[in-house]
Amino acid sequence: MIQKALASIGIGNAKVDTKLHRERLTAGDIVSGVVEVVGGNVEQQIDTIYLTLYTTFIKEVNDNKVYDKAVVARFTVSEPFTIGAREVREIPFSFNLPYITPLTRGKTKVWIQTELDIKLAVDPTDKDMIQVLPSPLVANVLETIRKLGFRMVSADCERAPYKLQTPMPFIQEFEFSARNTPYARYLDELELTFINQTAEHVELLLQIDRKARGLGGLFAEALDIDETFVRLTFNRNDLNSIETVLRQTIEKYMR
Length: 255
Description:
By secondary structure, this protein is α+β, with helices and mostly antiparallel strands. It folds into 2 domains: 2-133, Immunoglobulin-like (Sandwich); 136-253, no CATH class. Helix content is 16%, strand content 50%. It contains 4 helices and 14 strands. It has helices at 2-8, 136-147, 214-222, 242-253, and strands at residues 15-20, 24-26, 30-38, 44-61, 64-78, 81-83, 88-96, 110-118, 125-133, 151-159, 170-177, 187-197, 201-210, 227-235. Strands 2, 4, 5, 6, 8 and 9 form a 6-stranded mixed sheet that branches. A 5-stranded antiparallel sheet has the order 10-11-12-13-14, with helices on one face. The chain is elongated.
């Protein structure tokens, strides 16, 4: 009885350890591994094991920017079962890393948290950081912007604007400096957000921030009307034309 009471507050409780086969992953890859559950001092009922994919994002609270976490996806690993005292059980799993998972660029972090649902007990957890690489289409877009001379200065997840309908409560915004590029005379920066993507296509929002020129330009900058937003969609057949489309789009709206 005493051991059960202690387990209910986390002392002598079952423990969990997730072992990933790979920690460096590309969006769309299969995430696989095993969840190892080690029984505690007493037999316990495990209702469910979840693997939850989390990321960090920035939001404003009382005019201050703070970091919060958001759920990207959640996967059920097992049905209810009983783990005996000191018993060791390994449960294999696999799932596809969602294409909406943000890239681990800048200060953005992504991790898989293993959560055991145990009745009348402190639920044990385990946290495994992963590195998320861009899909081929996204990688092509980012590399093209680099080839055009833009330098990435930040890549943070932020709370999604209410008017921008996205599948997640956050967006990942990539900010590029126009300094030392052929566009430096006309642009301050370029900002890019991938709104939706699959294995076959990617939809992005390009924000072109023009330099203030003259009194009218200063007023436009103060009112944030010097920024142009452009939606673009690319698919696998567009790999050879991405550079041309991006260059033409930037040059069209930069004046």
